Amino acid sequence: MWKSMCGLALKLMGWKILNGVAPSKKAIIIGVPHTSIWDFVISYFYYTSVGGKAYFIIKKEFFYWPLSVLLKRLGGIPVDRTKGVSVVKQIIQEMNSRDAMHLAITPEGTRKYTKRWKAGFHAIAKATGASVYLGFFDFERKEIGWVSRFEVSDDPEADIRRMKTYYREYGLVARHPELYTAEE
Question: What is the mean pLDDT of residues 123-151?
Fold first, then answer.
């Protein structure tokens, strides 16, 4: 029933779903552009409506009762961001402890304007063998989905440049366009 409700919510908001659940047992789904909390809401409705469960990273400080119950239900993974603790290592351990896991990551790492995308997804994919999929939410076309599997190389910076080129050419429009760029 929740799956149908999420699909109905997207339909009522005018969104078009382009495809379903990523086919790999372990997957990292890149979410671009990330400029609003609505990116999470739309993405959650999408992946739930197609029958998937995507996990996401969130600061452990948000895991207090009763919010922790909701965050865990939605797929939140608490991470410790204190000095000396690697978020990437925590996620690698989490993913390696499961048979299957789809992790949603925004390489921008913030809802603010930034040209520097983070390469944590790359390290996680290399360490766990997870497939990487180029996901997106386009607020102009109101389309959401993932486009293709993205083969990671041994050069994270080159991979980020390739990703940015793809997203630039696709012409995505963020909820807040002034906060997004795929330029170098």
Answer: 96
d(CA 71, CA 57): 10
Tell me which residue of 121, 124, 118 sits closest to 92, measured CA to CA: 124
| Phi, psi of 124, rounded to the nearest 5 degrees | -65, -45
C-alpha 158/C-alpha 163 separation (Å) is 9
Q: Is the pTM of this model over 0.90?
A: yes
User: What is the Cα gyration radius of the chain?
Assistant: 16
| Domain ranges within the chain, ordered by starting residue | 2-179
Going by pLDDT thresholds of 50, 70 and 90, the confidence category of residue 83 is low
Could you tell me how many residues make up the chain?
184
Mean pLDDT in residue range 75-100: 90
- Residue 28 near residue 132 (C-beta atoms within 8 A): yes
Helices vs strands, H then E, count in the chain: 6, 7
* DSSP per-residue codes, 3-47: HHHHHHHHHHTT-EE---S-SSSEEEEEEE---SHHHHHHHHHHH
pLDDT tens-digit profile of 16-49? Answer: 999 999 999 999 999 999 999 999 999 999 999 9
